Structures are given as C-alpha cells and as structure tokens.
C-alpha cells in the first residue's frame, strides 16, 4: 500500500539523488575545465614559441594571442640555450635581461603564461636547441640544476625568476649537441620535485631527432620519466617526406612500450610548420593529417602533432587550424594524398645499417679535447661531377668563430666550389686538389654547436670516393 508519506519520502530521495548527480556533473565539468590539457589524448597540437623562425618583426605575436581559441593545446617556450651557466633567448618575445646576467626578465611573458593556463593550455620551457652552450659533467650536476629550475620557474624561490610568479607546467629537453651526461639525473630529480607537489600536474618531455636511438638523449629516454616525446621527423632520412620508406614511428612506438619507464608515454609526430621551418621534412597540412591519422589508427602511443614553430604555423595559410581541427575530429583529408619528396640523409645513430652505406658517410673525430661528428647529409655524384652537403657537430663543446676542418681529397678529385676560407677563394685560385683546409667565415663572430657547408667538384673514374678518414681533422676554435 502506497501512502502519502512514502510518496513524499521517495520524492525527497529522488530529488536529493538528482541534485547530487547534477552537482557532481557540474563539479566534474569545472574540474575538467580547470585541469585543461589532457596528456592522455591522441589529438593534441603542441607548438614551440619563442624563436620567431619566420624572422619578421610581426610574425611572432605575444604568447597570449595564440591562446584565444582551441587550436593549440600546449606551447613550449624556446629556449634556455645555455646551462648550467644560464643563457636564455626568446627572440623578439622578450629581450630584457636581469642586470649582469644572461637571464631574461620577462614579467609580461609571465602574465601571458597565466592567461594561457587559464584558457586550459599547458606551458613548458625547452632546454637546449640546435645552437648554444649547454651540458653537464655528471648526473649529480644535472640533478642540482633541476633544483635551480624548480626555484626559477616553478614553486621555489630565488632572486631571478624570468616569468615572475607564473608557475610553468613542465620542462622539455631538446638536446642536439654536447654530451649525453647528466640529463637523466636532471629529469629524475625534476620528477621527484613534481610528484612531491600533488596540487598541480607537471609534465616532462623530450624532443629527440627521429633516428633511433637518439645520440644525445638515448640514455635519458631509457632511464628517466617522460610524459611525452616530440620526435623531430624532419632534417633526417626518417622524416615525414620519406613516409612509407624510412619514416620510423614504429621504432618509437616500440621504445614507448618496451624501454620507457612510463609505459603510457605519448609519442608525437614532430613536423615543420612551413617549407622554411626545416631543411627537409615539410609536408602539406593535408599530407600531415593523413600520416597522423594512419599512425593514430596503428599505434596506441600516438599523442598528436608537435610543430616548429608558432610563427610559421600561423603564417602558412590555415595550416595550424587545419591540422588541429582534423586531429580533434579524427578525420584525415579526403584527397588521399601522401607525403613524397627527395630522400635526404642526415646524422643518425652509429648502429643503424640503413639507408645503404653507399649513399652517405659519417666520421667521428677524437683529437685531444675535441669530439666531433662529420656527416654527409646529401650526395649527388654523376658523370664526373659531385656535390655534397656536410654537417660538422661537436659533441662536447661549442664551435667557436675560428674553427677549421682539413682533409685530403682522393686522387683525381678537385674542388670547384666551397665556402669562403678554403685555402684561398676558388674564384681567384682555380680548382683545388690534394690537402684541403676549410675555415670559418671571418664575418661570423658567433658560437655554434654545428656548422653546415656545401662542396662541389669533379672526380675521375666510375665512382665517387670519400676522403680517407685518417686524413680528416677538425679544430673547433
């Protein structure tokens, strides 16, 4: 028998349950909105901001200008390109430094960071880059520097805080020179500091080049905690332009599932955002979306797309919005296009056996305190003429303005084109043979971690030969 009292009790219970359900959903929605960035997603677009690679005064806008909609999920500030003796560079994003230091003083960037975080974006700081003076002598030095980072950019205290009271969401490492020592120690210590603060979610990321294992970060990647890895699929033979041949996301997926300490680590396709953003590897937004869709369907470690950089992503038509919307909708382009392009071979780990060794060469130079790698990035040799693109990268110190490279050409070879500084200008002295010395451009007064140059000439016989490694020498200063 149903009484009025029982009906009232049931009604009250239902109302209470409904109210509890509604409040739970409201609170859950607010919590999700507050947490913002979803590290477990497979549809994120992450851009590097700070270097203004397009190079025009107005091509890099303030960070907060890019946080007004949902196009980009996270930004990585580039770079701290000197450490442990700190040097920072954000191009036109901030040029003011604390007096007597190379440490940027950018309270306006700090306000932008907080604006972006309020919009649900994660903001990280990248250490390293293609040029700079950085590296550690031991894991303990790396761990000690982690405390410095905590004090400068997170919830510690120190005299110099480049972004004021803004608290970053994480640290990225993009190590492209020097030694591999110390980075595991730094990342592991940061992981300790981050996990000790349950009030906020922090992220640790790395941006290795696509050849596996990475020459500079391989040790850290296997022995330290990472939440995301932004693999640079450009400027190398395994780039996006070689999708279907040497493109090697599968190797990074295997690393994520078998070698990484974090078995839920997300692996991103790193892409140039325009033709001018990289030496090779650029593909159109349509091509990139198709590749990303295929990779996402095949590999559970896929996290999204990382692009270099913000200034070119938003200057290349609707590249950024097209890639972002396609990732978030789960759709590829409809024209069925695929990436294509000429193969370009670049520095890769010594234990790789492909591509075939007849189309490249690489030498490691050890002499005194010099440790350098010389790579042939491109080779065209036919009908007695050759053209090569070379890269010299030091593994333990910066290349200073007075560097020199020397080698002996094989018999029958002559150089007809080379950088200024080779013995004497070729236009004045004619072709060169025998012993060759290439030196720095006398107008370049900066330091580098790598230098590039092209050589052209003639050879006799049916095949082109590289110099005898015993004749190759290099001095970075």
From TrEMBL:
<keyword id="KW-0624">Polysaccharide degradation</keyword>
<dbReference type="InterPro" id="IPR001579">
    <property type="entry name" value="Glyco_hydro_18_chit_AS"/>
</dbReference>
<keyword id="KW-0146">Chitin degradation</keyword>
<dbReference type="InterPro" id="IPR050542">
    <property type="entry name" value="Glycosyl_Hydrlase18_Chitinase"/>
</dbReference>
<comment type="similarity">
    <text>Belongs to the glycosyl hydrolase 18 family.</text>
</comment>
<dbReference type="InterPro" id="IPR017853">
    <property type="entry name" value="GH"/>
</dbReference>
<dbReference type="Pfam" id="PF00704">
    <property type="entry name" value="Glyco_hydro_18"/>
</dbReference>
<dbReference type="GO" id="GO:0000272">
    <property type="term" value="P:polysaccharide catabolic process"/>
</dbReference>
<dbReference type="GO" id="GO:0008843">
    <property type="term" value="F:endochitinase activity"/>
</dbReference>
<keyword id="KW-0378">Hydrolase</keyword>
<keyword id="KW-0119">Carbohydrate metabolism</keyword>
<feature type="domain" description="GH18">
    <location>
        <begin position="43"/>
        <end position="330"/>
    </location>
</feature>
<protein>
    <recommendedName>
        <fullName>chitinase</fullName>
        <ecNumber>3.2.1.14</ecNumber>
    </recommendedName>
</protein>
<keyword id="KW-0732">Signal</keyword>
<keyword id="KW-0326">Glycosidase</keyword>
<dbReference type="GO" id="GO:0006032">
    <property type="term" value="P:chitin catabolic process"/>
</dbReference>
<dbReference type="GO" id="GO:0005576">
    <property type="term" value="C:extracellular region"/>
</dbReference>
<dbReference type="InterPro" id="IPR045321">
    <property type="entry name" value="Cts1-like"/>
</dbReference>
<dbReference type="InterPro" id="IPR001223">
    <property type="entry name" value="Glyco_hydro18_cat"/>
</dbReference>
<feature type="signal peptide">
    <location>
        <begin position="1"/>
        <end position="24"/>
    </location>
</feature>
């Amino acid at each position: 028998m149903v009484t009025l009292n029982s009906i009232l009790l049931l009604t009250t219970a239902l109302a209470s349950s409904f109210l509890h359900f509604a409040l739970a959903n409201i609170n859950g929605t607010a919590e999700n909105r507050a947490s913002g960035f979803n590290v477990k997603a497979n549809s994120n677009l992450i851009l590097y901001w700070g270097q203004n690679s397009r190079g025009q005064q107005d091509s890099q806008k303030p960070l907060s200008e890019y946080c007004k909609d949902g196009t980009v999920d996270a930004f990585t500030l580039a770079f701290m390109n000197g450490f442990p003796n700190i040097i920072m560079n954000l191009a036109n994003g901030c040029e003011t430094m604390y007096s007597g230091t190379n440490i940027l003083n950018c309270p306006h960037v700090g306000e932008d960071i907080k604006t972006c975080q309020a919009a649900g974006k994660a903001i990280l700081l990248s250490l390293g880059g293609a040029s700079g003076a950085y590296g550690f002598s031991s894991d303990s030095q790396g761990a000690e520097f982690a405390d410095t980072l905590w004090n400068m950019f997170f919830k510690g205290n120190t005299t110099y805080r480049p972004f004021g009271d803004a608290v970053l969401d994480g640290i990225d490492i993009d190590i492209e020179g020097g030694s591999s020592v110390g980075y595991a120690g730094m990342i592991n210590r940061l992981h300790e500091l981050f996990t000790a603060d349950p009030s906020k979610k922090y992220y640790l990321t790395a941006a290795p080049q696509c050849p596996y294992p990475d020459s500079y970060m391989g040790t850290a990647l296997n022995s330290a905690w990472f939440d995301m890895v932004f693999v640079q699929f450009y400027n190398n033979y395994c780039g996006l332009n070689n999708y279907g041949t040497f493109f090697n996301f599968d190797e990074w997926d295997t690393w994520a599932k078998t070698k990484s300490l974090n078995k839920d680590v997300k692996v991103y396709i790193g892409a140039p955002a325009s033709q001018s953003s990289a030496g090779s590897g650029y593909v159109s937004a349509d091509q990139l979306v198709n590749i990303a869709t295929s990779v996402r369907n095949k590999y559970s470690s896929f996290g999204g797309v990382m692009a270099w950089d913000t200034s070119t992503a938003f200057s290349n038509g609707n590249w950024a919005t097209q890639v972002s919307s396609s990732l978030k909708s789960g759709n590829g382009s409809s024209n069925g296009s695929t990436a294509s392009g000429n193969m370009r071979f670049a520095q890769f780990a010594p234990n790789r056996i492909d591509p075939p060794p007849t189309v490249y060469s690489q030498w490691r130079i050890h002499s005194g305190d010099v440790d350098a790698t010389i790579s042939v990035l491109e080779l065209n040799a036919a009908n007695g003429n050759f053209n090569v693109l070379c890269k010299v990268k030091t593994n333990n110190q910066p290349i200073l303005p007075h560097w020199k490279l020397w080698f002996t050409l094989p018999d029958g070879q002559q150089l007809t084109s080379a950088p200024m500084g080779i013995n004497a200008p070729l236009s004045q002295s004619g072709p060169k043979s025998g012993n060759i010395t290439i030196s720095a451009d006398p107008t370049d007064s900066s330091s580098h971690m790598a230098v590039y140059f092209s050589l052209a000439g003639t050879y006799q016989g049916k095949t082109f030969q590289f110099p005898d490694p015993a004749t190759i020498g290099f001095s970075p200063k």
